[in-house]
Amino acid sequence: MTHADQELLRGAANRTNDLVRAVALTTVFGDRTVLDGVDLAIRRGEVFVIMGPSGCGKTTLLRHLCGLLPPTLGSISVAGHDLYTASPELLHDLRLRTGLSFQGGALLGSLTVQENVELPLRENTRLPDPVIRETARMKLDMVGLLHAADLLPSSLSGGMRKRAAIARAIALDPDIVYFDEPSAGLDPITAAELDNLIQKLNKVFGITMVVVTHDLPSAHAIADRIVVLLGGRVAALGPRDQVWHSPDCRIRDFIERRIPAEEGRVMDVIAHMEL
Ligand SMILES: Nc1ncnc2c1ncn2[C@@H]1O[C@H](COP(=O)(O)OP(=O)(O)O)[C@@H](O)[C@H]1O
Ligand SMILES: [Mg+2]
Prior knowledge:
Blueprint: H1 3-15, E1 18-29, E2 32-43, E3 47-51, H2 58-65, E4 73-78, E5 81-82, H3 88-96, E6 98-101, H4 113-124, H5 129-142, H6 158-169, E7 176-180, H7 188-205, E8 208-212, H8 216-222, E9 225-230, E10 233-239, H9 240-244, H10 249-257, H11 261-272
Parallel strand pairs: 3-8, 3-9, 6-7, 7-8
Antiparallel strand pairs: 1-2, 1-4, 4-5, 9-10
Helix pairs in contact: 4-5, 4-6, 5-6, 7-11, 8-11
Bound molecules: adenosine-5'-diphosphate and magnesium ion (MG).
């Protein structure tokens, strides 16, 4: 792709309300090509779900999109700015507008839940102390955890810890939040509660959500659009129902093989329960 083509795409991205756009992303680790020419765009205000078999490069893609890992080839633009050629100041600004909720993104064990949520505000703003405290409490309220503000992470359940990490991820009012396998290690009910929270933050506060998940009921419950990665390439990309009912046999295999129909229906009911 020529520079002129990229400029054209960038212009198109601005016109079409795309917040993040990846063009021809390619990732090579050693002699292994993990991502092989991935093109996709994430629209403002949507819940965008990334699916694919274990080891297919979902976490790698997420790290590229949020600015943590430059791709071997290809480019990523955020709000029309090329992420990996941006000036340090712009990159810093773009990162501040991005929330991360990754596996292993643990809370600091020596700080209370509230202090954990205050941390990004203390590190990145000069807000006066009472404003920082009140902002953190507001974020805890948004994730339903105000009652646990003064507890240490060690006394929280797995689901509460995830909520606290989400409160921290939204502390700076990001435009977009990236989640890597948010329901990993949670029981189905707690996972469904987390789905509800992700949807609420999206619908009520308009935060764009990008969620990597291997959990089919969860993907179905929350996604506006889905991308399925197979063999390092985009195998399907589109509105949830279009991908879910894709006639492509590779997609059918992926959607149907992982979870038997009977179990899938039960899980679907759980995922849709109002909690
Ligand atoms: N930093 C790295 N160096 C070398 N190989 C890596 C690195 N990160 C990931 N990989 C490899 O790339 C492939 C995709 O990894 P990953 O993106 O974590 O997959 P997924 O999240 O879909 O399970 C795996 O084979 C993994 O071992
Ligand atoms: Mg992963």
